[in-house]
Amino acid sequence: MPRSRMQRLLGIGGTLIVLAILSFLLLPVLVVTMAAFNDKALLSFPPQSLSLRWFINAVAYQDFRTGFQNGLVVAPWSASIALVVGAAFALAIDRYRFRFKRLLEGALISPLFVPHFTVGLGFLMLAVQVTLVNTYVVVIVCHVVLVLPFVLRSVYVSLRNFDRRLELAAASLGAPPQRVLITVTLPLLLPGLVSGWLFAAILSFNEFTASLFVTGQRTQTLPVAMYNYVREYADPSMAALSVMYIVGIAILLTIANAFLGLGKVLNVEHDR
Question: CA-CA distance, 157 to 265, in Å (whole number)?
Fold first, then answer.
């Protein structure tokens, strides 16, 4: 078979595979979106008639509003603490050589493969010992541990793409290390820092499994409130809330990509 024909066939096959994967991923979103506009008090697809009543119900439901407000407390704090800790560890791992460096890296990324219910149960047991059950402190610390690997990855990739000659130039002109860090290093790492914070905040806001163990009625986040709701009701309010979730996160990521270039920050595209 001629090479050009083979390339065309491979290109067509690759395109079809990508379209099939995208369809597989987007089909549930489409079904949930359509179900959210159903007028009847029952999750069904396709809807017989369209209505916005379940969006209004989702916004008006008090537990959802409380969970959303708690998420606005927990997510920024968790993301900010994880950013400071993750950036410091990423800088140390990238710039310095020390014993047990690989062991430290493994410990920092371990939440990626440790089940979240294990982390949540561990923090619940710890909270009982230090009398911090059902407090924001244990929820925030738990979320920091879970989102830390994503901040570490974002900042570490930015450091690997960082031109250290700029720091050396500033130092050669007499700038002390602290001034080099504040005026050269941090501004150049800003896209990675902001994107790391954004991903950490989104992940913290959406975290459910560990939050189920460490939150109480006063501190429950929105995913936990959604879980408690679905145990009692089967109306499309959950679908409506899911649609609002998807739209909100899509808008945040679109804005972040427009200003930060997330593809370059995450090292999935390169300058040509």
Answer: 7
The residue extents of the domains of the chain are 57-265
212-223: burial string, b at 16+ Cβ within 10 Å, e else: bbbbeeebbbbb
CA-CA distance, 99 to 105, in Å (whole number)?
Answer: 12
Q: Count other C-beta atoms under 10 Å from residue 70's C-beta.
A: 22
Question: How many whole angstroms separate alpha carbon 100 and alpha carbon 262?
Answer: 31
Alpha carbon 42 to its chain centroid, in Å, reads 31
Q: What is the mean pLDDT of the chain?
A: 84
CATH class of the domain comprising 57-265: mainly alpha
pTM, 2 dp: 0.81
Residue 183 DSSP label: I
Residue 38: strand, helix, or coil: strand
DSSP state letter for 161: T
**Cα–Cα distance between 28 and 250 in angstroms, integer?**
16
Give the phi and the psi of residue 121 in degrees, each rounded to 5. -65, -40
